[in-house]
Amino acid sequence: MFMFSRSICCAKLNQLSTFETLFSNLKLRPCATPLIGPLQTCEYRIYSREKAEYANVNWDELGFALTKTDYMYVMNFTEEEQKFFNGTLTRFGNIEMCPSSGILNYGQGLFEGLKAYRKEDEGILLFRPQENALRMKMGADRMCMPSPTVDQFMDAVKKTVLANKRWGDLNLMVEDNVHRAIPGGTGGIKAVTNYSPVYKPLTEAKAKGFSDLLFLDALTGSNIEEGSACNIFILKGNVISTPTTHGTILPGITRKSIMEIASDFGYQVEERAIPIKEVFDAEEVFCTGTAMVVKSVASITYQGKRIGYKLGAETLAQKLHATLTGIQTGLIEDKLGWTMLID
């Protein structure tokens, strides 16, 4: 995970703000799990790279919480020259932040998340990291923040991954009272303030046995948008539809990749407004995101009405998941140049 915050720092810190890049190997987490948590003090173990080639992790008991790894990447920013510099790896730990930091007082912060995959031959692949770098620059521009260059972002990702290389059914409820994003807001970027507003309705939905919420647009309240942290698709016949990304929906990189793969499969892929009533006529519904990749939706409940959808090995969602993860892990030839081998 990569966090980027604007700090209005004290003079004794020489007007430096911090860009921190934290890479942690996370077990796949459903989109219902919030990606942002309350500010807390880090408690972590230091693992010696000399002691083991791979980290001693019980993957079956890993769960969905953050797992701290060995190193993080920190870069400084100078207000005078308006650029980032002196990027360096450091042991994972707490960071020093000025009380007047913009992220603490005004929520002026961004984050990005991507995955690294270990191939069978021990090589490590990054999946479309340039897209994350460009999306962070877009988000920084929207939040009136400076951003590292694409090259700086890529260098930080490569170094952090290599330093930590030893680490190795959705039921949705439609939320029609709370809106995740509004037109003209920041719903289309990975701002830190986008996720906390859904905590309360999401907690209430989980208490009722649902996995996640499906949000409607704030303008009409009749079109679907996305889950709390994932994009959504519906399938009917040979047509795959997904809501357009006009500022209120995050332009997911997995979303973009799945659309291209589905087109190669021969499906007609549409980006358009999707009325909630169309969801109940769909043959299949699935969500996409960095953590889950692609996951079938078992059911959607709206105003007390529950509709179930096709599940299992023969679903399009499973085929898309197998293809994309095959490309990400190097088991399927990457003809589109999406992956990057690092060493």
TrEMBL record:
<dbReference type="InterPro" id="IPR043131">
    <property type="entry name" value="BCAT-like_N"/>
</dbReference>
<dbReference type="GO" id="GO:0052655">
    <property type="term" value="F:L-valine-2-oxoglutarate transaminase activity"/>
</dbReference>
<dbReference type="InterPro" id="IPR001544">
    <property type="entry name" value="Aminotrans_IV"/>
</dbReference>
<dbReference type="InterPro" id="IPR043132">
    <property type="entry name" value="BCAT-like_C"/>
</dbReference>
<keyword id="KW-0032">Aminotransferase</keyword>
<dbReference type="InterPro" id="IPR036038">
    <property type="entry name" value="Aminotransferase-like"/>
</dbReference>
<dbReference type="InterPro" id="IPR005786">
    <property type="entry name" value="B_amino_transII"/>
</dbReference>
<dbReference type="InterPro" id="IPR018300">
    <property type="entry name" value="Aminotrans_IV_CS"/>
</dbReference>
<keyword id="KW-0100">Branched-chain amino acid biosynthesis</keyword>
<keyword id="KW-0028">Amino-acid biosynthesis</keyword>
<keyword id="KW-0808">Transferase</keyword>
<comment type="similarity">
    <text>Belongs to the class-IV pyridoxal-phosphate-dependent aminotransferase family.</text>
</comment>
<dbReference type="Pfam" id="PF01063">
    <property type="entry name" value="Aminotran_4"/>
</dbReference>
<dbReference type="GO" id="GO:0008652">
    <property type="term" value="P:amino acid biosynthetic process"/>
</dbReference>
<keyword id="KW-0663">Pyridoxal phosphate</keyword>
<protein>
    <recommendedName>
        <fullName>Branched-chain-amino-acid aminotransferase</fullName>
        <ecNumber>2.6.1.42</ecNumber>
    </recommendedName>
</protein>
<dbReference type="GO" id="GO:0009082">
    <property type="term" value="P:branched-chain amino acid biosynthetic process"/>
</dbReference>
<dbReference type="GO" id="GO:0052656">
    <property type="term" value="F:L-isoleucine-2-oxoglutarate transaminase activity"/>
</dbReference>
<feature type="modified residue" description="N6-(pyridoxal phosphate)lysine">
    <location>
        <position position="190"/>
    </location>
</feature>
<dbReference type="GO" id="GO:0052654">
    <property type="term" value="F:L-leucine-2-oxoglutarate transaminase activity"/>
</dbReference>
